[in-house]
TrEMBL record:
<feature type="binding site">
    <location>
        <position position="229"/>
    </location>
    <ligand>
        <name>S-adenosyl-L-methionine</name>
    </ligand>
</feature>
<keyword id="KW-0411">Iron-sulfur</keyword>
<feature type="binding site">
    <location>
        <position position="141"/>
    </location>
    <ligand>
        <name>[4Fe-4S] cluster</name>
    </ligand>
</feature>
<dbReference type="GO" id="GO:0046872">
    <property type="term" value="F:metal ion binding"/>
</dbReference>
<keyword id="KW-0489">Methyltransferase</keyword>
<feature type="active site" description="S-methylcysteine intermediate">
    <location>
        <position position="371"/>
    </location>
</feature>
<keyword id="KW-0963">Cytoplasm</keyword>
<dbReference type="InterPro" id="IPR048641">
    <property type="entry name" value="RlmN_N"/>
</dbReference>
<dbReference type="GO" id="GO:0002935">
    <property type="term" value="F:tRNA (adenine(37)-C2)-methyltransferase activity"/>
</dbReference>
<feature type="compositionally biased region" description="Basic and acidic residues">
    <location>
        <begin position="376"/>
        <end position="394"/>
    </location>
</feature>
<keyword id="KW-0479">Metal-binding</keyword>
<dbReference type="GO" id="GO:0005737">
    <property type="term" value="C:cytoplasm"/>
</dbReference>
<keyword id="KW-0808">Transferase</keyword>
<keyword id="KW-0698">rRNA processing</keyword>
<keyword id="KW-0949">S-adenosyl-L-methionine</keyword>
<dbReference type="GO" id="GO:0000049">
    <property type="term" value="F:tRNA binding"/>
</dbReference>
<dbReference type="GO" id="GO:0070475">
    <property type="term" value="P:rRNA base methylation"/>
</dbReference>
Length: 394
């Protein structure tokens, strides 16, 4: 008989953390209404509940407090009562890598011992945090390393907003007690949902997490500083406009259905025409500006002059910016990155047609900060370690 197989994602890291083992509920990620109900359920008088939510909310999301004892505008007995029933829990940093260019890449552990990544990218006028929405992905885009990993689970709203809290901890971006939280210059000023996973396949949690990030009495990021990237889950695009209202990016990547079917297989379900239909309505529904069309540059696959011309024809009438992404190779990937000259020629055609066509500069290359890479490295190490153990047992 062979030894029982250990599931890939259940590793030695599954020990519950303090608080969890006592069944305490995490307050991070609850909407205001959910927090109000939770406070009432532990005996907070209904009349006071809204005010208490406001106080606890500000401690968590404006001040970065994780211990109820520090919530000094609440009575001591009430702080103890909160502590008895709740925790303020954010993902744990497993590893952090800081690039020469200041990019920070975090590998984060969430409940169940799963891991996701977040990347902080400092720029002159802003600091952007790239966050994940799922562990793995159900989709199988052929150029994406995350696509080769099976979906393990959706992140909760708390784990989604928790990535922002962890990054602010690491950046030391919580105001000193007594200082107005709105005075701070923002190190973390923008969010992009471009990490692991398809955010529109985890819609409710992404929406709740982003609502918390936008709440004016908390992290208070404007909806124009949040960009959600989707591979093209057409039926959820209008809801994104109506219920989140953030900026939208779309992983377009091809100009014919034939090529897009192979690169972004969700195209077989909702093709280019259906996708463009939904995108046309987005700016009006969300009252926002341009849509970002992401376009990964793959040598000999989607990078010809004809592709560039077709692209500008397809998106005519949609306020758009086209973000050209040089392909980030990974071991075993079936593609190569287009040459710099080819990318520039492609960008030029788009620019001459009247669209902004920035080429995304690879950041944090020395720490493998391209989305998907750090997590995959760790998974590979784990797998081979397990293989070695299995062989030893046999
Ligand atoms: N699942 C969502 C968001 C995450 S991916 C989506 O697909 O839109 C963020 C962006 O990185 C997407 O445009 C994705 O297509 C792109 N991407 C994925 N793997 C890549 C790679 N190896 N090189 C360059 N871009 C990649
Ligand atoms: Fe999933 Fe996006 Fe990667 Fe496609 S590109 S496999 S949707 S994470």
């Amino acid at each position: 008989m062979s030894a029982p197989q250990t599931p890939i994602t259940q590793d030695v890291l599954t020990l519950p953390r303090k608080g969890e083992e006592e069944g305490k509920r995490n307050l991070v990620g609850l909407t205001r209404d959910q927090m109000r109900e939770a406070l009432i359920a532990i005996g907070t008088p209904e009349k006071q509940a809204k005010m208490r939510v406001g106080q606890v909310w500000a401690w968590i999301y404006q001040r970065g407090v994780r211990d109820f004892a520090e919530m000094t505008n609440l009575a001591k007995a009430y702080r103890a009562q909160l502590d008895e029933h709740f925790v303020i829990r954010v993902p744990e940093i497993v590893t952090k890598a800081v690039s020469e260019d200041g990019t920070r890449k975090y590998l984060l552990r969430i409940a169940g011992g799963h891991e996701v990544e977040a990347v902080y990218i400092p720029e002159e006028s802003r600091g952007t945090l790239c966050i994940s929405s799922q562990v793995g992905c159900t989709l199988t885009c052929s150029f994406c390393h995350t696509g080769t990993q099976r979906l393990v689970r959706n992140l909760t709203a708390g784990e989604i907003v928790g990535q922002i809290l962890v990054a602010r901890d690491d950046l030391g971006e919580w105001p000193e007690p007594g200082r107005n939280p709105h005075d701070e210059t923002r190190l973390l000023s923008n969010i992009v949902l471009m990490g692991m996973g398809e955010p529109l396949y985890n819609f409710d949690n992404v929406r709740d997490g982003m609502k918390i990030a936008m709440d004016p009495e908390g992290i208070s990021l404007s909806r124009r500083r949040i960009t959600l990237s989707t591979s093209g889950v057409v039926p959820m695009i209008a809801r994104t406009a109506e219920e989140i209202g953030c900026l939208l990016a779309v992983s377009f990547h091809a100009t014919t259905d034939e090529v897009r079917d192979t690169l972004v297989p969700i195209n077989k379900r909702w093709n280019i025409e259906a996708l463009l239909g939904a995108l046309k309505d987005y700016p009006r529904l969300s009252n926002s500006e341009r849509i970002t069309f992401e376009y990964v540059m793959l040598k000999g696959v989607n990078d010809s002059d004809e592709d560039a011309h077709r692209l500008v024809e397809l998106i005519r009438g949609i306020p758009a910016k086209i973000n050209l992404i040089p392909f980030n190779p990974w071991p075993g990937a079936p593609y190569d990155r287009s040459s710099n000259n080819r990318i520039r020629a492609f960008a030029d055609i788009i620019y001459k047609a009247g669209y902004a066509s920035p080429i995304r500069t690879p950041r944090g290359e020395d720490i493998m900060a391209a989305c998907g890479q750090l997590k995959s490295e760790t998974e590979r190490e784990r797998k081979s370690k397990r293989q070695i153990e299995a062989e030893a047992r046999a």
